[in-house]
Amino acid sequence: MVIQPFTLHFLQQLGKHNQRDWFAAHRQDYLLARQNFEDFVGALIAQIASFDPGISGLRPQDCLFRIYRDTRFSKDKTPYKTHLAASFQRNGKKVHNPGYYLHIEPGGNSFIGGGIWHPFPEDLKKIRQEIDYNLEEFEQILRQPAFRRRFGELTDEEALQRPPKGYAADHPGIAYLKMRNFIVGHEMTDEEVLSPGLLKQITGSFALMKPFIDFLTRALDD
């Protein structure tokens, strides 16, 4: 299963003509691109489920995001997203749990990710507590050579400037405790997206992420 060139081409053209009239005239092209992406997501679910059984019950429609933008509170009133995306979480994308993410967008803007973005305040407290109690285990996950080669260092541009309440500034894990998002990932070129090896590449990346996902999931399950 591969991402077809016409899928990237449609998204590229949508970026140039992000208007309802154009989209209506090219709706058949959109349906073809979406079907290609949906088929790829279905194949990816099967691959993820081979090492993360919690994903096995998902269907592609449980994972895909709509292409229609919510413009109610945005200055950008363009009606459509210029990417296709899917989130793979136990119990589906509507559950705000740690999971895997795939984003396809032409121009070198495609990427995969994993973890949790903007957790609820109570969930963030649980994650920080889990890191506090099990810092050595968390660091071992992040320091695995294959993990670091693929994803680099865990960072967060939205990290707090000061230690969160209840944690000292000299805590050995303070850099992680200041974080508000726990995400790893890597970008993909258009050539990689269109490569026959994409499914295998993404599967390998998600398999490397699983201990990180498991740690975050355990924090919220406790």
From TrEMBL:
Entry-linked NCBIfam families: TIGR02453 family protein
Name of protein: Uncharacterized protein (TIGR02453 family)
Gene source species: Thermoflavifilum aggregans
